[in-house]
Specification:
Elements lengths: L11 H16 L6 E2 H8 L13 H13 L3 E4 L6 E4 L1 H5 L3 H13 L4 H7 L9 H12 L10 E3 L11 E3 L18 H31 L15
Antiparallel strand pairs: 1-3, 2-3, 4-5
Helix pairs in contact: 1-2, 1-3, 1-5, 6-7
Length: about 230
């Protein structure tokens, strides 16, 4: 039976862990399935995340254990390191395009259809904004038999040109008090994109080192400096 948020909403930690697994499966497939350390780095990134979080090892592990009980994630054997995969599409019962949109909403907070199309580039290439809107409408009109709506269109914020969408996987939202922050543009947006790309590259390199160490039967050496996305 598909996961139904109305019966068991995800916690904020569970949503972040799940969406990070979904993201890394598409953007850095060489590091997927993910170790707890790699997953934690992705969860605590300071770019492409809204809100920015600082999960601990214990909090991330607790979220993984809960997601496994919900059949939204599962553990895989990986030599000396335990690794994790998501089971979102089958667990929730949605097509690939809808899963992409929900994953982005969990990671980045409320977004317009145009923002979702741009942010989805590395996950899935939507032909145009209309195709994004079509899948969002389908998610909003999801029948009760399938678990009910998974997204809702928020009222347009003061000064905003378009309304934003948000997910309902963590339960109902108060649309009357929505105050989604506008997307960051200009030089700051370019810098954030660059930092996000570097974080992705570091995550891939770390996964390669972990895999090589596992094959050689040695423990990876802890980094001397905090990885990107952590303090």
């Amino acid at each position: 039976m598909p996961f139904e948020p109305a019966n068991r909403p995800l916690t904020a930690n569970e949503a972040r862990v799940l969406a990070t697994l979904m993201e890394k499966a598409r953007t850095v497939p060489d590091s997927y399935p993910m170790s707890l350390n790699g997953l934690l780095t992705g969860c605590n990134q300071k770019t492409s995340r809204e809100p920015v979080m600082a999960l601990s090892d214990a909090e991330a592990q607790e979220a993984l254990d809960s997601l496994r009980q919900l059949t939204l994630a599962f553990e895989t054997s990986g030599n000396r390191t335990t690794r994790w995969e998501h089971n979102f599409q089958r667990g929730v019962g949605v097509p690939e395009q809808s899963a992409v949109l929900l994953g982005l909403l969990m990671l980045r907070g409320p977004q317009t259809a145009g923002e979702l199309r741009i942010n989805a580039e590395r996950w899935y290439r939507f032909a145009d904004i209309s195709s994004v809107e079509a899948f969002l409408d389908e998610l909003q009109e999801r029948s009760a038999e399938k678990g009910g709506p998974l997204v809702v269109l928020l009222p347009r914020a003061p000064g905003a040109r378009e309304p934003r969408w948000t997910h309902l996987l963590c339960g109902p939202v108060d649309t009357s008090s929505s105050a989604a922050a506008p997307a960051t543009g200009g030089a700051t947006g370019a810098l954030q994109s660059r930092v996000a790309a570097l974080e992705t590259e570091v995550a891939g390199l770390r996964a390669t080192v972990e895999r090589l160490c596992a094959e050689l039967g040695i423990e990876p050496v802890a980094p001397a400096m905090s990885p990107p996305g952590q303090e």
